[in-house]
Amino acid sequence: MLGNMAPEVTLPYGRHQVDDEDVAAVVEVLRSDWLTTGPTVEAFETAVSAYVESEHAVAVSSGTAGLHAALYAIGIGPGDEVLVSPMTFVATVNAVLYQGALPVFVDVEADTLLIDPTLIEPKITPRTKALIAVDYAGQPCDYDALRGIADRHGLYLIADACHSLGASYRGRPVGTLADLTVFSFHPVKPITCGEGGMVVTRDPQLAHRMRCFRNHGIDLDPHQRLVAGTWRYQMQDLGFNYRLSDLHCALGLSQLKKLDLRIAQRQAIADTYDQLFSSQQQLVSLRRKADISHGFHLYVIRLAPQKRDQVFTRLRTQGIGVNVHYMPVHLHAFYRHSFGDQSGCCPVAERAFETILSLPIFPAMQETEVKRVVEALCVAMSEARPS
């Protein structure tokens, strides 16, 4: 046995849930004539667009591919600037670079870690073409404020909703709040395809551009050519192989039926955490806005900076898979090397990074497991020492 092995994580921060109905849906496709570019892809797209009340949905191979496709569709290219939050997974910002554009970071609100609308307009220049709002942890951003800014300055508004499928803002579902909305179906997300993503929009031209982009820039995929009774197709632009297979879509279609229940389960777990933490003054959970329904992809708390890493290590040794989401993107080595040290450009996000800790939350999590996390956390907090 190797020495110094990390302890087994028995309670991860997120966990997928697949049942017999999901397995049967995938097996049915395995026995069909179409494993990819087939009718199940369109069925999944139709179901997601209906669920989020958006006219068009384009299935892609990941949330990252969705972000890339969205930026391609609106014509982002070299010389353009895209405003984005630093408090996100690197994929959000990487997609801007894929199109040769420049990401411009806008700081976040201290109590929600969502992009701060009051800081956006000073960052807008004649080169600014789009704004990407990140629904951090599953809480929708202030889309009325963001829509107003985007409209005043002629910007596209993209929602990185990879955390927030099933959430809503002022009674409107995520998927109706931006020009394009990107979802992820990674295993720890609200529903999973194994891997996968989806972009929804009300603009048919943007949807068409993304459909071509995901298929090497080709106008018709094999199933479309079969239906049209033709072998002809044209590569209209340089695209990528970002297709999502019928196998993935079968799993997603089956999982989508359980989404409302799973969001309710996540919200109940978050409520339990809130209740158990109500008497603890050494930690603070992120503020929940009154006019939203939270998706709770993550449950994030904030600790004293000098204690966070000690608490992380202590809980991991007990098999509790706490995590940190996220290091601000501009602090990563690649961004430092490519764009210079931008430390200090987003002080709220940078300070938050030193304090945040993501606790386990997933639909099948039991109340006893929630209590286990809270008890272990409180002990770890009491034993942590100032560094």
List keywords for this structure.
387 residues; Aspartate Aminotransferase, domain 2; Aspartate Aminotransferase, domain 1; 13 helices
Largest sheet: 7 strands, mixed
**What is the global morphology?**
globular
CATH class category label of the largest domain: Alpha Beta
Determine the number of helices (DSSP H or I, runs of at least 4 residues).
13
Oligomer: single chain
Give the ordered list of helices and strands: EHHEHEHEEHEEEEEHHHHEEEHEHHEH
Unreliable stretches: none
Distance between the termini: 33 Å
Strand order of the largest sheet: 2-10-9-6-5-3-4
Instruction: Determine Rg (CA atoms, Å).
Output: 21 Å
Strand content: 5-15%
Please give the CATH architecture of the largest domain: 3-Layer(aba) Sandwich
Determine the mean pLDDT.
Answer: 95
Instruction: Provide the CATH topology of the largest domain.
Output: Aspartate Aminotransferase, domain 2
CATH homology superfamily of the largest domain: Type I PLP-dependent aspartate aminotransferase-like (Major domain)
Number of strands: 15
Overall structural class, as computed from helix and strand content, comes to alpha/beta
User: What is the share of helical residues?
Assistant: 25-40%
Number of domains: 2
